[in-house]
Amino acid sequence: MNPVTRVLRSTGGLGLVVLVLVASLPLWFIQTNFVLSVATLTLIFMAASLGWNVISGFGGQISFGHSIFFGLGAYTTAILQVHYHLNAYLGVLVGVVVAVALAVLLGAVTLRLRGIYFSLATFALTLVFAILTGHYEGFTGGEVGLTLPLLGDAPGQFSFENKVTFYWIAMILAALAFVVTWLVLRSRLGLQLRAIQADQEAAQASGVLVFRVKLTGLVISAVPGAVAGSVYMQYIGFIDPDSAFGATLATQIAVIAFVGGAGKLWGPVVGAVILVPLQQLLNSSLSAYPAGFNLVVYALVVLVILWIEPRGIMSMRIGRRRPRPPRSAAPPGGPDPEPASPDAEAAVPTSRNGG
Amino acid sequence: MTTLVQTLVSGILVGGLYGLFSSGLTLIFGITRVINFAHGDFVTLGMYGAVLLFASAGLSPLIGIIPVAIISFVLGLIVYRVIVRRTLSVKGISAVDAQHGQLVLTLAVSILISNVLLMIFGPSPQAVQGVLPAVYNVFGVYIAQARLVSFVIALVVFGLLYLALQRTLYGKAIRATVDDRDMASMVGVDPNKVYAVSFSVGIMLTGIAGCVLATYYPVTPTTGAGFLIIAFVTVVMGGLGNVVGAFVAGLLVGIIQQVTAIYVAVDLQDVGLFLVFVLVLVLRPQGILAGRRASA
To answer: Is residue B250 within 8 Å of residue B236, measured between CB atoms?
Structure first.
């Protein structure tokens, strides 16, 4: 293989190609407001799902409540603006702080236990948040939800008349989330997380500080979700308990990653590109059908994909002749420029797939 | 004082049904290690089964239990054979990946069931009305006949499950598999059969609970999410895989929920539940009845 293909094959190069492609979409592909909004939402949920991948995909602690962080980001930004008239950018920051604080609390209670307790607790907690935001109406707007004041074109207040701006903001967010997961995957932390997923006892025996590593993973994992929630809030201008903390969003963030490939660097990207447009299309084009039909189709698509390959699209074998899986199923970190080094890239995927 | 007794009584009565469907969930988890995210929706299916049988054939939910139980058993078998088994048969898949696949697949089944129900029945609540309408007044405490009868049925069905686990060969095979699956298969227990049977029985118990619950609890396509949370909290409190623990915890959960609803706020009843859940996780993650035998 020549050096050029090797560079393109390494994730950084492919990432750059994708980034340029995505950044230029509004210039040649996105012609209608509908397509623009679908593309923006895809990138926002992609970012949340990329964050999910850190603790759940790499660390194997499956969260069914990442909507907690998304919802906290959205609600914090909204409440600070509506009740305290603070700047929206400040709201994004405070949202991240609140989400991180909650991640630490949640992790302290659940991450010392087996992974299943974490799954159950996250799912229960997000629904509790939905109930609480619905109950304390004075603060959160209750079931009716919160609407941001219309500011028109005020870049200093995170408000833009031109919706393409939000598209690019969402793109930067998704790109940053991707880079963060990429860095985690290549770091010692990523190796430790995947060692925990493969065999927690063995990891512990090898000196991995299991609880601390999981907690760090969860905190990193919460940040993209919170920012995604804030950006969603600024973009849509409206939030209610169900769209922030509801079971649909809670599971959607995880399902995006699972369909693409949990634990694979590109998994959430692939999953979001397939599922979010699918859902948006179903919502708008099937409105003539009885309520629920769109989600029936959605569920069937997810069922079929995972029935064929429970590890997600990135693990599907294209063509049976090659003994090795195709590039898409290669180790999530991608081949190193120095392929001889027997480090994380070489060691971990075998333990994950074989363990 | 009367309010307190009233609250406790209603909590225990509804808790019996929580215990029944939660023991189904914990049975499934104990044997197959599958966290069934569609569990709440099988309660809903049982409830709609009762509504449908009552509306179309005038069949009382008390008789409807039999067809609902059979259909639930078959549905459980189908879900297990077609979906859960599939993740285990993929070439080269690790145990962890298979388990994660099962999680998402049951989640997709949950979305599928609740939205098929939404398409058929619409979003408005439905109920079986006029069955068991009497209300008894025992020293100032009101007990609705429907709740009392439901509780008794839950007790009886759970008792039958317990006897089946203790006395029958299948029950012994199931308990052996919970204790040590490798050893069990070594002494001739066919794990595939045990998995399929326990998954189906778990769903059947859930369907029965739903069918009986419909006599006093209105059902909508999304009620399942609430029951799923209740079942999660209950099985953790009872100790994962502990069938008796789940039933006892179900009674406690019913009480906690009613106490929160009466003394704090009705719409916060599940929040009280969650606080207890966190306490259990911190203090006794092995379950409140831990120390006894784990199976039944």
So the answer is: no
The separation between CA B108 and the C-alpha centre of its own chain, rounded to angstroms, equals 19
Q: Any idea which architecture A3-316+326-336 has in CATH? A: Orthogonal Bundle (1.10)
Distance, CA of A185 to CA of A179 (rounded, Å):
10
Domains and CATH numbers, chain B: 2-283 (1.10.3470)
Mention every residue, 6+ apart, whose C-beta is less than 8 A from residue B85: B192
Which range has the worst mean pLDDT, A23-32, A58-67, A327-336? A327-336
User: What is the spatial distance between Cα A106 and Cα A113, in angstroms, rounded to a whole number?
Assistant: 12
Closest-CA distance of chain B to residue A63, Å: 11
Q: In chain A, positions 171-200, which contact chain B (CB-CB < 8 Å)?
A: 197-198
Residue extents of the structural domains in chain A: 3-316+326-336
Residues of chain B neighbouring A354 (CB-CB closer than 8 A): 94
Helix axes A11-28, A163-186, angle to 10 degrees: 170
Q: Across all residues in chain A, what is the average pLDDT?
A: 83
- Per the CB < 8 A criterion, the answer to whether A74 and A229 are in contact is yes
What does the block give as tokens for A145?
Answer: 């939800």
* B35, B119, B228: residue with CB nearest A296: B119
Say what the pLDDT of residue A352 is: 39
* B70/B61 Cα distance (integer angstroms): 14
A100-126 pLDDT, tens per residue?
Answer: 999 999 999 889 888 888 988 898 889
B15 CB-near residues (< 8 Å, 6+ apart): B250, B251, B252, B253, B254, B255
| In the block, residue with structure tokens 């129900």 | B117
The whole-number pLDDT of residue B48 equals: 96
Collect all residues of chain A within an 8 Å Cβ-Cβ radius of residue B86. Answer: 307, 310
